[in-house]
Design brief:
Blueprint: H1 2-10, E1 20-26, E2 30-38, H2 41-49, H3 98-123, E3 130-136, H4 149-161, E4 164-170, H5 184-195, E5 199-200, H6 206-217, E6 234-236, E7 253-255, H7 259-267, H8 271-274, E8 286-291, E9 300-307, E10 314-317, E11 320-332, E12 338-351, H9 355-361, E13 363-370, E14 377-384, E15 390-396
Parallel strand pairs: 3-4, 4-5
Antiparallel strand pairs: 1-2, 6-7, 8-9, 9-13, 10-11, 11-12, 11-14, 14-15
């Protein structure tokens, strides 16, 4: 509620020429685009107002429910039953164990990291400094260290190379409910510091906090220098000033690469990041048909992908033309967890006689899939190898039965 209200009220506090895009990090779906860059405040406000996160809890832990409120809104727990005559009650199955909670936090923080990585890859070719305001409740800072440290360093490097400052905004306000873990503020401070952003916390006026940050970002100096060696490595940047009392927010580093290498690197980015952009990647047009053969179990199916010819790169070959794509099929269960995946690289040939048909109808490529038990959704990613153009498609599986198409 606080996050939604803060973003909506922010729209009335920024200059009318400020271009804003809205992204969401949604459980089970990763990074999604609500509204691309625009100055139209109505579109932005409408996108926030009508967005309902998947898996949203009606009542957060720690919030008192008024006595006169309908019982529908009061969290219900199954009754505890004794394990035997006079024995203690068994563990409450409705509550996650500490081990389950730890695994959930680790999985969620990794999804956040991949989402930020995907955002860096999406925005890196836009010119100038980009300011991202991440409204969040955070997660334990230990997730940025230990075995996750190298992965997060890679993500911070990608954000800096894309010239993105991540400003963290704590939506827990001054009197929010207990988080259930410690150190969220220090985590937000580290993310902001690593990318040259600011951390905003311990305040109720989220809209004012973000508006002041946007106003400050409109006033800046541009420093430039020549690179003497294109070694392809990541280099840290340090900026010092003689004037005391100043907080410096600036890009923390860069990859010493030529523009051609940067574009090629962006095209060949981690295909897993594409999974976290299901609403924003449509550079490859995909139409899918699933076949479940009669006499076969539901878990045995074939996915036929029809790809738009305008999205693909083909080159002349001795027999006509050829193209190459990468495919990724990820199976998710009802709570958005991955239960299986299939990946493949396919090369297709187009003869001279089939060229006119390809130009109008595209190409159809098939992939057999053995669905894992409990799979309810199939996420499909197709990337054209030569150009790096990527498309995604989400297919619900709950209505597929034996013999269906």
């Amino acid at each position: 509620m606080w996050a939604r209200q803060g973003v909506i009220e922010l729209m009335t506090k920024v200059p009318s020429d400020e271009k804003i895009a809205l992204y969401v990090l949604q459980k089970g779906d990763g990074l999604g685009l609500l509204q691309d860059y625009t100055t139209n405040r109505f579109r932005l406000t409408d996108a926030v107002a009508h967005f309902i996160p998947r898996g949203l809890r009606i009542c957060a832990v720690g919030i008192e429910v008024p006595e006169d409120m309908n019982e529908f809104y009061r969290p219900q727990s199954p009754p505890k039953r004794a394990s035997g005559p006079g024995g203690p009650p068994p563990p409450d199955a409705s509550k996650a164990t500490p081990r389950e909670q730890s695994a959930e936090i680790q999985m969620t923080s990794e999804a956040v990291r991949l989402s930020l990585q995907a955002l860096a890859e999406r925005l890196r070719l836009l010119p100038g400094r980009k300011s991202v305001y991440w409204v969040t409740r955070g997660f334990p800072p230990v997730q940025l260290r230990d075995m996750n440290k190298i992965a997060w360093e890679k993500t911070f490097a990608a954000l800096n190379d894309a010239n993105i400052a991540v400003n963290t905004v704590d939506d827990n306000t001054l009197f929010g409910p207990p988080r259930g873990f410690a150190g969220a503020i220090s985590m937000m401070q580290q993310v902001a510091e690593e990318t040259g952003g600011q951390a905003y916390f311990h305040r109720n006026d989220l809209d004012v906090a973000m508006a002041s940050g946007i106003a400050h970002s409109r006033m800046s100096y541009t420093l430039a220098f020549y690179l003497t060696e294109m070694d392809g490595k990541y280099h840290s940047l340090k900026v010092h000033v003689d004037r005391s009392g100043l907080d410096l927010n600036y890009r923390q580093g860069y990859y010493a690469q030529t523009e051609a290498v940067q574009i090629s690197s962006a095209r060949k980015s981690d295909i897993n990041s594409a999974l976290l952009n299901p609403s924003g990647l449509n550079d490859v047009g995909i139409t899918a048909k699933l076949d479940v053969l009669p006499g076969k179990p539901r878990a045995t199916m074939t996915a036929h992908l029809k790809l738009d010819p305008q999205s693909l790169s083909i080159r002349q070959s001795p027999g006509g033309w050829s193209g190459k794509i990468e495919e990724l099929f990820v199976e998710l269960n009802a709570v958005g967890r991955e239960v299986g995946r299939v990946s493949d690289t396919k090369q297709f040939e187009i003869g001279a006689a089939q060229k006119s048909t390809y130009d109008t109808q595209g190409v159809v490529l098939s992939q057999p899939i053995q669905l894992a038990p409990g799979a309810t959704t199939l996420s499909v990613v197709v990337r054209d190898t030569a150009s790096g153009r990527t498309g995604t498609l989400i297919i619900p599986l709950d209505r597929i039965v034996q013999g269906d198409q």
